Amino acid sequence: MITAIKGTRVRRAAAVVFTTGAVLATGALGTAPAQALTKPTIAAKGGFVMNNGTGTSLYTKAADTRRSTGSTTKIMTAKVVLSQPNLNLDAKVTIQKAYSDYIVANTASSARLIVGDKVTVRQLLYGLMLPSGCDAAYALADKFGSGSTRAARVKSFIGKMNKQAKDLGLTNTKFDSFDGIGNGSNYSTPRDLTKITRSALKSANFRAIVKTKKYTAKTITKTGSTRTMAPWTNTNGLLSSYSGSIGVKTGSGPEAKYCLVFAATRNGKTVVGTVLASTSISARESDAKKLMNYGFAK
Fold it and tell me: pLDDT tens digit string along 78-101?
């Protein structure tokens, strides 16, 4: 009798242990990812990540603090061009000496466009977004702005950039340049730049351009012959170093420091985000990777 009671107690104890263990195991599996998901520390002074599909915020760090944006400004330059009515991407633009002089005067990043060459709008967009050509940006602003003088057309184009920002409801963004070489009041925030990019990514042409690692343009020279340009390489190292990366744009400058607007898709989920004022090229890429990993895990 005593033996039977002892046996029952053992069996009951084992059952309790087993049940408790099962609950603990289930609980651990259910909650561990959330507990393990620590908000990343980044070198950049500002950062923001959102779910591209839902617009849900996934990470913020000084996300609404206005900062210089460097060449990430060119995302809006491309967006304005691609939103023009009846856009002909094969329309040709003749490269002017003013574009070349501008590059020299500002020691600016260049697509190495050659004065007198005829370059298509499509090629200019690649020259804008891959090597971050300020000459390509100038050419596009001159082409798609309105006015009887180059200065008027550039001013008109920048006006279009600001109108698009306003249409998106952005209150912390202002452009005073077509390429990020501002005149003291060219600024945005991690949240605003991410929203601009989310909107730009709706364009298939934009998506195709920003995910391209290398592009070779064939332009038409003054004499009508074909010139094969040296290949343009995308300045965004994430395209080669982060699985699922689909763009978007680097930026840098004395005031802007090191900036990166990034996007990636994994398992049907796309995250898009921005880091501003990071400390180096490698740091901004490391920041972006941390934030994308965090965004995908949420």
Answer: 999 999 999 999 999 999 999 999
- Structure token digits, residue 276: 């501003």
Residue 74 appears among annotated catalytic residues: yes
Residues near 66 by beta carbon (within 8 Å), at least 6 away in sequence: 172, 187, 188, 189
| CB 232, CB 216: distance < 8 Å | yes
Separation of alpha carbons 113 and 95, rounded Å: 7
Q: Is 266 helix (H, G, I), strand (E, B) or coil?
A: strand
Residue found by looking up tokens 């400390």 in the block: 279
The residue from 68, 109, 110, 132 that is catalytic is 132
Neighbours of 94 (CB within 10 A): 13
Q: Tell me what the pLDDT averaged over the chain comes to.
A: 91
Mean pLDDT (whole number) for 98-124 = 97
The amino acid present at 16, given as its one-letter code, is V
Does the annotation mark 240 as catalytic?
Answer: no
pLDDT of residue 182: 82
Question: In terms of C-beta density within 10 A (0-12 exposed, 13-18 middle, 19 or more buried), how is residue 169 classed?
Answer: exposed
Instruction: Please give the structure tokens belonging to residue 221.
Output: 């020279």
Exactly one of 68, 71, 188, 286 is catalytic; name it: 71
